[in-house]
């Protein structure tokens, strides 16, 4: 069986669908879906442009435009004389209470955190509702940048009741590691995900192209008793994150 038979079948199925979507967009969307489904993994090489043309019966300009679009989304890396291969994307389990650091380590990568703020602020209505507190109650606001292999991937703001944190300077790379040391056990999450265009600040901090969108994950985390212990707002690179929910 051809090495690329499953991929070719997926691409052919999408290309043959009758709609007004340009062929190169159909191609790129179908290939990106194959990555998100795990059919293609980080480091997998793709056929050459010429081979794609032969396998799919489409023009080289269609293939080239599709690969350019995938490159702009950072789904693939194209190198002269080396080929085109699948870029790294983090499958983040949003239904799990496992920490970012644990999930990244589980993928064989090194997580990193750069703390920007650890301060007490009065909570606004949204934070108050998610933490089951009266509005304007003092809470810790924890702002940091997250990294995978020294590459910035997200900006995260966590709000935590002040009763759960003694000395915020004791929080290291992982907030959940601090929770564990305090015998606090994150157990359940509720998640809301939206996509939006990246703003100038996010583009600058993440060092990405303006064409890369932002995924906004809002997450409420509760302990074993169902009491909220954290509400976070995560601004994530859409080219590096794939959110997975398994119930």
Which consecutive residue ranges, at least 5 long each, have pLDDT under 50? Answer: none
Strand share of the residues?
Answer: 25-35%
Q: Any idea of the CATH class of the largest domain? A: Alpha Beta
Shape: elongated
Structural class estimated from helices and strands: alpha+beta
Integer-rounded radius of gyration: 21 Å
Q: Name the average pLDDT.
A: 92
Give the neighbour order of strands across the main sheet: 4-5-6-9-8-7
CATH topology of the largest domain: Chorismate lyase
GO molecular function, one term: DNA binding
Organism: Lonsdalea quercina
Keywords: DNA-binding, Transcription, Transcription regulation
Protein name: DNA-binding transcriptional regulator, GntR family
Descriptive notes:
- It holds the Pfam family UTRA.
- GO terms for molecular function: DNA binding; DNA-binding transcription factor activity.
- This is DNA-binding transcriptional regulator, GntR family.
- Keywords: DNA-binding, Transcription, Transcription regulation.
- The protein is of the alpha+beta class and 247 residues long.
- It folds into 2 domains: 83 residues, Orthogonal Bundle (Arc Repressor Mutant, subunit A); 155 residues, Chorismate lyase-like (Chorismate lyase).
- It is 30% helix and 32% strand.
- The chain contains 8 helices and 10 strands.
- The strands form 3 sheets. It has a 6-stranded antiparallel β-sheet with strand order 4-5-6-9-8-7. The protein has a two-stranded antiparallel ribbon with strand order 1-2.
- Helix 1 packs across helix 2 and helix 2 packs across helix 4.
- The two termini are 35 Å apart.
- The model has no long low-confidence stretch (mean pLDDT 92).
